[in-house]
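Justification of computing resources. Each target in the renewal requires a structure prediction run like the one illustrated here; the chain below, 366 residues long, is used simply to show the kind of job we budget for.
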Amino acid sequence: MADARSTPRAASPGSVGSIRLMGVPIRLHFTFVLLLIFLVVIGLDSNQSPGSYSLFILALIVSVLLHELGHAFISSLYGIRTLEIVMYPIGGTARLERPAKPGEEFWIALTGPLVNLLIAGSIFTVLYTQHKAVNLFAFEQPSDGNLADRIALSNLILAGFNLLPAFPMDGGRMLRALLSRIRSEYEATRIATWSGRMLAISMGLYGLVYLPMLAFVAFFIYLGAANEGAASRGRSLTQGIPVRAAMVTDFRTLSHGSTIGDAANLLLATSQQDFPVVHGDQVVGLLGRNALLRGMALEGSASYIAAHMEREYASISPDQDLSEILPLMSSAGACALVMQDDKLLGLLTSENLSQFLLLRSVGLQP
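Resulting structure tokens:
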């Protein structure tokens, strides 16, 4: 596990903006922004007022956020930190610090739909106390008068959609958790992701004929299932393997007093992209390729690397299980320092980890 100074995490590719709720960064994927624009456009032709439609869209976003925060809350009870929540067209995705165990995953996954059912139930209860009948066909003729009905029905749809037993929906995660009791984690994931891909293909074919927007959603379902399948394959290949088996041991370092020019020369002379910065025997920072180029562009080759290096860097133990490190290394260009008793032993980079996984997959690594 990364230590206390390894808190920074690269944002998910394609995400924009960031706010924090309950200490968790909330980001919007650019496709979610496109979806919001699309919803606003189609809402212009409805019988409801702009204010009512805006409230409906806002309620949908809040419902999805509460759904994901429910996941984050239960995850925290199991000691799993939520690194970020990214909003996609198919809903939010909570990225966890480590994969949940089957028993943990079942309850974490179930919490999200339960939050939506609770929201819907609360609205229905209020309508009942006011002696108002629930309009189950509110979406057919949306108006200011059935705003509450549509919010409640939307939460029912969110809960039902997420309970489908297919990845990347919560039902798929619950299915994997149950299957993991009788099958390996990889086999359980394979079944759940196969279900997700079949669902996506069915939705996509139907959407191409009748509802193009459904095909758009199906694409993200298929992509999510495929990504989870690849991640599960990576975990199966690294389970029980220590970090020291995959780390780079032939590496170069930079001294605290080195210049950007010195770092650039070392970048050209080696295949290394990230350089630990040391002061004597102590590691004081990490200089990556992007930071090096940024420093060169802003202040020139004579500037010192101390002004551009990362002082908060990921640090992992050489004996830690490699499968636990995969989430930390999921971003392209990620680099972690392998240290023991404050002594630098090696580097673990996303590129080297990919090569290790490739060799493991063809049986060329123990």
